Amino acid sequence: MIKQNIPTHIAIIMDGNGRWAKEQGLKRTAGHEKGASVVRDITTHCGNIGVKYLTLYAFSTENWNRPKLEVEFLMRLLEKYLKSELDVYLKNDVRFETIGDISKFSKSLQKTIANVKEKTAHCKSLTQVLALNYGSRDEIIRAINKGIKDGITNFTEDSLNSYLDTSSIPDVDMLIRTSGEIRLSNYLLWQCAYSEMFFTQTYWPEFTPNELDDLISDFQKRERRFGGI
Ligand code: FPP
User: Fold this and answer.
1) What is the pLDDT of residues 123-178, one digit of tens each?
2) Among 12, 91, 103, 102, which residue's Cα sits nearest to residue 44?
3) How far apart are CA 169 and CA 166, in angstroms?
């Protein structure tokens, strides 16, 4: 990996927690717990190498369909993670943001999210964006409805963009999905229009900063033409 041409925005679909746990003879929830520690390592690493935005798919609009106990576990894990992470964000100058409709979360979790956003608002090295109750189609529909409420009848790419949850975040340069699945699963469909895509067999709990560096090296070798020649 070279220090020039580091992607500005990396988005990751963190997949394979459950399969990793099963292969270790553990409960699925142990996979999510290990996954949370990988979130910390990868975030710190991205800050160190000069990535400016890291967007992580932590809970999709479809994840509510999982067994109730697993959903509850993920909610508790998220709250625990955010509370313990505040000091780490501040120490590493990481700003915390979210995309997705968090109004469906408990009041307590919403409060924790708001608090971490507020306390890290001044941080400048890296913005870590968690996609929470996020689905791309849901985001686009919410954006259109907000625009209509404001009296917009004829959207342009720029005006629609300004109503998306990602309005202040640049398009995705590099999209990574772990665990061998090759699909986008309703993630950042608009924002990935020209992103370079990377699919690795590694389960998320085993994903490392070294592997990320290798993928960034591949990214740096690709020629991006954005529809030109
Ligand atoms: C996919 O694995 C992962 C998720 C649905 C949630 C992602 C959550 C984490 C990485 C941990 C918590 C995150 C934070 C920020 C604290 P899967 O369960 O779909 O795995 P499988 O496909 O092998 O079953």
Assistant:
1) 999 999 999 999 999 999 999 999 999 999 999 999 999 999 999 999 999 999 99
2) 91
3) 5
- Among residues 87, 95, 85, which one has the least CA distance to residue 52? 95
End-to-end CA distance of the chain: 26
Query: Structural domain boundaries of the chain?
Result: 9-135+171-221
Mean pLDDT of 95-121: 98
Q: State which fold the 9-135+171-221 domain adopts.
A: Undecaprenyl pyrophosphate synthetase (3.40.1180)
19 touches ligand 1 (CB under 6 Å): yes
Of the residues 15, 165, 171, 173, which is catalytic? 15
Annotated active-site residue 63? The verdict is yes
How many other C-beta atoms can be found within 10 angstroms of the C-beta atom of residue 22?
Answer: 13
Three-state DSSP class for residue 169: coil
